[in-house]
Amino acid sequence: MTLEAVPPSLRGELSRWLLEVQPGVYVGNASALVRDLLWDKVVQHARTGRCTQLYRANNEQGFAVRMHGDPKRRVIELDGFQLIAVRNARHAELDQEYAPPEDDDKL
């Protein structure tokens, strides 16, 4: 699990269950129940921070991904594979710059 810009108390709580190998990077071998409970706690207390969890799963990739709090990145599924879609900031600017007017009556 990775945590970014979350309260220090949440990082401390997570270190009770997992090993913090780098700042904000947690590794461990927890049961599915503990993993899900930890994820719920992280999402609940992350505030404006970002969280990512990777865990073993019975699929072609051998793992699953969940993300919370990063609007530029999201998990998408394509043909049974989980991929990370990253919104390109340049395209977002162009989308806003060339967006059609919302009110057609003013044309």
Automatic annotation (TrEMBL):
InterPro entries: CRISPR-assoc_prot_Cas2_sub. This is CRISPR-associated protein Cas2.
